[in-house]
Amino acid sequence: MKATCRFLFIMMSMLMLTTGFSGCSDDNDGADSSIIGTWAYEEDYGDGDYYYEEITFKANGTFILESVENYYGDYSTETLRGTWEIEGDELIVDIDGDHLEIRIVSISSNKLVLEDYEDDERMTYYKV
Length: 128
Description:
Elements: H1 2-16, H2 29-35, E1 37-46, E2 49-57, E3 62-71, E4 74-87, E5 90-95, E6 98-107, E7 111-116, E8 122-127
């Protein structure tokens, strides 16, 4: 439940922010290509309760996010699909026309750290 609330908060925060994208020159090709692939985030609540999500960023600018949560025996899954782009240090996702901006704190070949602008919460993903 806690992870679902966190996930929904992050997704809603992303949906509330709007942004425009204009393309002159693309000086962040490195970050764009570094993010392509599947990344996983996991949180262990203890006592068998957990939250796990995988997000796959594709080279064509689309993504699929799949999450699984087990909280006090309540098992739930969710799948979201949308588009993504990187502008500066921001990951901008679009889900059904709603835009969300998330700060990219750091990215390497196997680790992605994102920060929510609303509450400064950081989430660390690892390449699968």
